[in-house]
Specification:
Helix 10 links the parallel strand 3 and strand 4. Helices cover 43% and strands 12% of the residues. It is α/β, with parallel strands linked by helices and 617 residues long.
């Protein structure tokens, strides 16, 4: 039975500002509350700015200039900003933003809270900690043992994940230097292959000499980076992983790429062989990253199989490694799998509810078992990146990271003398446990408001994100149904890259009979140039898409299948080794409605035909 208790149309301003008056009234109310707050703080104090001063020419001049600058700002924003609020925007991972989160951000930003330390943010620091627990619960962690917080973005969250892995992996060597009796008889190889739990248990025994341990760890340059081993990532990784390895001194030579399979998920067989090869050479594995929602294809890696591989190597060869799930994009979608009691539903039960409640159309099969199993395994990762400012539909900047065991924070914590007192154990001192220093409390408030309003289960965020997934599959089905179009008397083929794991669809056009891959790439590049959010004023764009280049050096031969379906030969693929595709991020919840998708699809295809008619002359 369809669940009508939660109407997602009431969450957003709407493509045509349908909820504009509600938003405007709420915004004025938020501003009024702040103005009253200022007046209520010691009302006996006399006003500092007098009525006479406000009438002065110099005073009026400043206010007039303020309005003038704001007018210029507004004009620039209207002329060039990406129209992510519209179903016509199919570009990057940006979409409608929750009205409540905007209002929450605006309300909190007036108070200019700094979540680095509790005394600078007595309202918003507790909100951030509460949000951290929300995310732990969403991702399957035991909230009595885990911890999480808001970051400025997914790049910093990924960096923190690698920071944890690096520092934790170095602790056994540091303890060997400080308390050798605790690891007596262990070789460097055995120290490098202790499990995260074993290391954290060991660390509890040296708290009385923790400063010495820290100074002998990688943090104090007491451990050679070569002892920590390789950081393994899929070829589909976000560029932030290379950046993190550089900044943290891991060394780019220690980042190992694993090729993807034909569905653009990390190839598990290749991963196993990669680990085997390293083990045979006695090279440790620092950690493995699985991506839950790649930024180019929306692919969901086989996290469950990565976890199974770790268990296999632990049992058979005494080899272990850290696991980080980069779910910056796809993490919030785990809400789809949770019932009202926060229980991860059985597969058949989930599919039945998605269909019965109208979240996913009956003729769409989602999630596939591989995706289901990957989301179920998130609770097994040691740390997870998850960005509220993506599928949480809240304003930038709000990334996030959660860790399975809160004891991990000891491996990275620092104290700044002017903010913290040494020995303080207060969880409110966020700056001690994170990579950032000063940070906006307004971001935490924005996420907190979203979580207060929308349940992190199938009835709330599940319904919202499910609409975008449904829209992506409707878009994919439209491509499969269309196949070819006629332009200037030329038959043009249209193919999608893969059936989407999530809510992103990559696709490309090619004239029938053309086998020149460079020419096909040129056509799709020109299509993107006419459909990007740059160039002419944005109001003149009918649809906005993004694009990407799927090259052999990043994806091996995985893109070849698309080239073949578009009429390009294997020989031509082997010569060029790169294919240009258009990318549609279907984050808009409105495209989840078949009637809306069909309407916009017709407009979209007319737009593509018009552009192709100018290209194919």
């Amino acid at each position: 039975m369809k669940n009508d208790n939660f109407d997602i149309n009431a969450l957003f301003l709407g493509p045509k500002s349908e909820n504009g008056q509600f938003f405007k009234d709420a915004l004025i109310s938020c501003v009024d509350d702040h103005l009253f707050w200022r007046k209520d703080f010691h009302p006996e104090d006399e006003p500092i700015i007098s009525y006479q001063e406000k009438k002065c020419d110099s005073f009026q001049n400043v206010q007039d200039r303020t309005l003038s600058v704001l007018d210029r700002l507004s004009a620039l924003m209207r002329e060039t900003s990406a129209p992510w609020h519209s179903p016509r925007y199919l570009g990057h991972m940006n979409s409608e933003v929750l009205m409540a989160s905007i209002l929450g951000y605006v309300t909190a930003v007036f108070y200019n809270a700094n979540n680095c330390a509790y005394e600078g943010s007595p309202a918003t620091t507790p909100m951030e900690l509460e949000v951290g627990m929300d995310l732990c619960r969403l991702l399957g962690y035991d909230t009595s043992k885990s911890w999480g917080h808001i970051t400025c973005d997914g790049t910093i969250a990924n960096m923190e994940g690698l920071w944890y892995a690096r520092n934790i992996s170095s602790l056994p060597f540091a303890i060997q230097a400080v308390r050798p009796e605790l690891v007596a008889g262990k070789t460097d190889w055995e120290l490098a292959n202790m499990t995260v739990d074993q290391i954290l248990d060991l660390a509890q025994k040296v708290k009385d000499v923790w400063d010495d341990v820290r100074n002998n760890s990688v943090r104090g340059l007491g451990v050679q980076e070569s002892k920590l081993g390789k950081w393994i990532v899929p070829q589909s990784k976000h560029y932030s992983w290379v950046k993190a390895a550089d900044v943290l001194g891991i060394g780019l030579q220690n980042v190992v790429d694993v090729q993807v399979d034909n569905h653009f998920r990390m190839d598990i067989d290749v991963l196993e062989q990669t680990i085997n090869d390293l083990v045979e050479k006695q090279i440790p594995i620092l950690g493995v990253v699985a991506v839950i929602g790649t930024t180019e294809e929306g692919a969901i890696d086989y996290l469950d199989k990565v976890v199974a591989l770790r268990e296999k190597f632990q049992k058979e060869k005494g080899v272990s490694f850290y696991i980080h799930a980069d779910a910056a994009y796809g993490g919030y979608a785990r809400s789809i799998f949770l019932d009202e009691e926060n229980r991860f539903m059985e597969y058949d039960e989930l599919v039945n509810r998605l269909h019965a409640e109208g979240i996913i159309d009956n003729d769409i099969v989602w999630p596939p078992k591989d995706v289901y199993n990957a989301y179920k395994a998130l609770e097994k990762a040691d740390s997870i990146t998850i960005d509220p400012h993506k599928m949480g539909y809240v304003p930038y900047a709000a990334g996030g990271i959660v860790i399975k065991d809160k004891r991990m924070v000891d491996s990275i914590s620092f104290f700044a003398a002017y903010v913290f007192e040494a020995g303080t154990t207060s969880p409110m001192l966020l700056g001690s446990y994170i990579m950032e220093g000063s940070k906006a409390g307004a971001s935490a408030a924005s996420v907190w408001v979203a979580h207060q309003l929308i349940p992190l289960n199938i009835t709330g965020y599940g319904k919202l994100i499910g609409a975008s997934i449904n829209g992506a599959h409707l878009f994919y089905n439209m491509i499969a149904k269309t196949k070819t179009i006629e332009v200037n008397g030329i038959t043009v083929r249209l193919e999608a890259l893969v059936n989407p794991d999530f809510n992103m669809v990559d696709f490309a056009f090619n004239p029938e009979g053309n086998t020149d891959l460079n020419y096909m790439n040129e056509i799709n590049l020109k299509l993107w140039e006419q459909s990007s959010a740059t160039g002419v004023p944005i109001l003149k764009k009918d649809f906005v898409t993004s694009h990407t280049d799927l090259a052999y050096e990043d994806y091996k031969d995985a893109p070849e299948n698309l080239a073949l379906r578009l009429g390009v030969t294997s020989d031509e693929w082997n010569k060029v080794k790169s294919i240009r595709v258009l990318r549609a991020c279907i984050l808009s919840p409105y495209l989840g409605l078949p009637k809306v998708t069909e309407q916009y699809w017709d407009d979209f295809m007319e737009s593509m035909k018009k552009k192709l008619s100018c290209i194919l002359k």
